[in-house]
């Protein structure tokens, strides 16, 4: 693969098309040469991942993605492979037609795809059907082919984008290839890093096709992928007062666990002091389970006020409820104008009574909460997660974290980062409460909102992966993340 200093940058489909056009118009690289480079990169990936493969089946669409497939087929023939190549149509367009001719000149035979004949037996199937051009559900005949490829259980290599996956949004409006490996070309497409893409991309590789870095001049990446990070070492003279005081507010009757998880995560993430404002009935359990938390029973705003005055940062929402008690505490806390992290019922109350924030604020909704905050459906949120997270940050003048596979972080100016870590085992109760506490602790230790959200989301997801590596994903508990969270925060080579 061609190494690139831009491997952490994500681009929209329109931006990648602009880069491709620049390579042709400004650099004078013919489109067929870009296809040749893409085919060579993909064939090299095939050989690297499946070194014993000798029979390959290639499925080509009518456009440039199909052209990449034709040229890969020609390379495979020249290397002595048995190549079965199927085309969706009887003719190809533009450079793809030239590529088709080269495959035939190499001795290949193009067969029309027919569901009647079924899939051939192959060591690897190569998806070169649609690429970045598809933003709709595949037509029924092609959807049937995609389904057959997925159901066949044999390895699949996708060229540029798994067919059926929207390269801009990460969603699949219909059937889509679930690849074992995807080789993306020129630049990373943002849709391959969030949403449903997690189930379709497999191992993702990038080849820049040896295009120079100056090709990107003037084109600002749409988003970036988070990199491993931690906090710098503490000064040896540090004391608890220099590491911030978090006040976690929540834990209505029956939900003491949520606020305990939030508070304990804030401690494990390095806050010097963590107080908890909760129902009186929760105090014995909290003090018994985690005496380092300074738990206070509050029956209303008057009891909350002195706790607010001693705190630096608020973690508002875990287990708060939406009744009179939770609503009163929510209003009192927001009216203080303090730095805060807002989650769970804190967000549900915000959806009912919207306001914009002046102080540093991080909101951490899952898609359901995001739908309520933006007055949309969950389907609308998931249809374009990038648009949704930017809308959240703008509407509330906050740093927004849209949780899910490939969690997104946005600021009010439109900057977006994508989390590449995390696993399905984290889809359990309490994980969001941990994230709230972690981000609040980072704010309390001096991180500004964007940095706290990015670092907190990354640490949370990496701790989840570390915990899953020790026993598996299924059955993972939120508290399993606390030990790896601690050593990740103290890792000096993150």
Question: How would you portray this structure in words?
Answer:
The protein has 494 residues and is of the alpha/beta class. Helices cover 39% and strands 16% of the residues. The protein folds into 2 domains: 9-221, YjeF N-terminal domain (Rossmann fold, 3-Layer(aba) Sandwich); 240-489, Ribokinase (UDP-N-acetylmuramoyl-L-alanine:D-glutamate ligase, 3-Layer(aba) Sandwich). The protein has a 12-stranded mixed sheet, with helices on both faces. Strands 4-3-2-5-6-7-9 form a 7-stranded parallel sheet. Strand 15, helix 10 and strand 16 (361-363) form a beta-alpha-beta unit. Helix 6 packs across helix 14 (431-444). One of its GO terms (molecular function) is ADP-dependent NAD(P)H-hydrate dehydratase activity. In the C-terminal section; belongs to the NnrD/CARKD family. InterPro entries: CARKD, Nnr, Ribokinase-like, YjeF_N_dom, YjeF_N_dom_sf. Residues 223-492 form the YjeF C-terminal domain.
Short description:
With 494 residues, the chain is an alpha/beta fold. It has 2 domains: 9-221, Rossmann fold (3-Layer(aba) Sandwich), CATH 3.40.50; 240-489, 3-Layer(aba) Sandwich (UDP-N-acetylmuramoyl-L-alanine:D-glutamate ligase). The protein has helices at 13-25, 31-49, 64-78, 94-105, 140-152, 256-268, 283-289, 301-310, 324-335, 345-352, 367-374, 378-383, 385-396, 431-444, 449-469, 482-489, and strands spanning 9-11, 55-60, 82-87, 110-112, 124-128, 156-159, 181-185, 188-189, 203-207, 223-225, 245-249, 273-278, 294-297, 313-316, 340-342, 361-363, 399-402, 408-410, 416-418.
